[in-house]
Write a structure and sequence with these properties.
75% of the residues lie in helices and 0% in strands. The protein has one domain. By secondary structure, it is mainly alpha-helical. About 12% of the residues have low confidence. It has 8 helices and no strands.
Length: 194
Amino acid sequence: MTQPRRLIASLPLMLLATAAAAHTGGSAGGFASGFAHPIGGWDHVVAMVAVGLWGAFLGAPALWLLPVVFPLVMAFGGALGVLGVPLPMVEAGIALSGVVLGLLIAFAVRAPLWVAAVIVGVFAVFHGHAHGTELPDAANPYAYGIGFVLATGLLHLAGIGLGAFVGSTGGRIVVRAVGAAIAAAGAGFLFGFA
């Protein structure tokens, strides 16, 4: 393998690498921690993939608007969490995001764009708040925030990729089945089964 290819192949590993912690149990809490947080929690993964999938199902402009609304509003929710602003039922809101978004996909709901954006935005506040309150004390909040927003965007892209199947009859059935699975996973988180 040539030198440039090795460098390119190692980029994903560099993004996931964490800083060395000098104390047992310590966490750098910067970019790597922020990036890993959404990917490490299945409740976040299913909801964020669902945003991209529902956007793909709805088509343009929802295809790009919903995955932009979610991280922007999520960053606002994260700031509330960092500031210690209380938000009731955060975990229930995160779990319900999977249930609701999954059902919207499973039942092929074609909501108006502004309604879809409001639904996605409301759930983004809960996800962001959880990210913000779980921010380690010694962390760089800006690097952490950039990490979790970037990971969120990649999860939305995964959902959009799944949504590429919407065009065919069989693909629509697969997408709706994935929506049902997302709803079931959200229900599992909500009722403590997952």
